[in-house]
Amino acid sequence: MGNSLPTYSEKGYGYAVEKAPTTTGWTYPVFEELWNYGTPQELTHFARCVRGKETPKITGEDGLVVMHALLAGYASAGEGRKIKLPFQAPAVKRPIDLWLNGPARKSANK
Q: What is the CA radius of gyration of the chain?
């Protein structure tokens, strides 16, 4: 939240930031949250791509690389070791099963 200023309130106030449990005491309200998180910019870029005025900055191939990295993270947690990329995951019903059913987790639960 690089743009937030610490704010103190004894009574609390409205919305501070997503998932803030309370706004009493010291909190960090976000100024122009949607703009800072990029929502208007993303929607503008998407609409311009649909109209053929821009080329997508992120592709399906980029998303696939991210998914392989996430699967490698689950496998790393499940096996208790580093996993090299590119990672080709074995067939599992759910990606998190690489972690939940991994040998490192099974040995930790014994």
A: 21
